[in-house]
Structures
1.
Amino acid sequence: MESASRRARIIIADDESIIRMDLREMLTHLGYDVVGEAADGRTAIELAQKLHPDLVVLDIKMPDMDGIEAAERLTQSRIAPVVLLTAYSEQNLIERAKRAGVSGYLVKPFRESELMPVIELALARFHDLQGLENEVEQLKDALETRKLIERAKGILMEVHGLKEAEAFNRMRRTSMDNRKSMREVAEAILLTHQVETRSS
């Protein structure tokens, strides 16, 4: 049975049409879906922005914009992971590729059997990275919410002479009664306090 990732949607970019044709055949044979083709990096980026593929395979040496520059833009905007193809295994290119955030690297000529491990690894790494970024965002959000709640609690304690537990319970009741999140309640308390402080 084919996994969902085996049917990943891929864009390929190489300035040599015969290589694109070979690559498309290999990828299709492996069960991937080639959704777009380009002859240069700039077109590859435009296609990726429009089609939102799961992966972009780019040749390094292309006119207008090379594969590494295109890869850098694609990885920075988190559109899709990038696998680079090259006929050159020069160290400085590999270093540039690493700095660009490339997920995989294949030296031409390569066999069909070499493609899948590189692609699957690139897809898995990108998926893991997205998961980590989401976790970081959630943690940052939770921390920010906690800070707001603490500040709002402090205001209630100061203004109404409440104990910490009482202030927190009042906020929780307001949250439940008005079907608002604790963050929204905290923000409302802070805003009200701000307005009252200014007008007094």
2.
Amino acid sequence: MNVQTDLDADIGRVARESRVIAVVGLSPREDRPSWGVARYLQSQGFRVIPVNPGHAGETILDETCYGTLSDIPRDAGVDMVDIFRRSEAVGGVVDEALASLPDLRVIWTQLGVRDDDAAERAQAKGMRVVQDRCPKIEFPRYL
């Protein structure tokens, strides 16, 4: 099996098995890509938990926004983190996710975003990692 086939299989499993997705960097503005992706995920039955320190305590897409991943209640069932941040911020987000989300199984970074060192740390903890992809583009093939 080649690398692309393995990645496609991983994406398919993520699309079918994930249920609660924390979106780091989710904007309340409807014209932002993060909002469009989160709205799509909700329309497909996923629960989306917004994470954005500038909007903590507000409601985005009918969900309470948290300032950090650590602020999300541990029993929320977050099994995937979708990162809408610059590549330089990914390492810290991944480390916080690994430390604070007990049900976590997937780290996902959006188009143009990657941190191979953080990906290796997450994979070493048993996480599936998808980088430089968008679930709004990838998931429809599997749902």
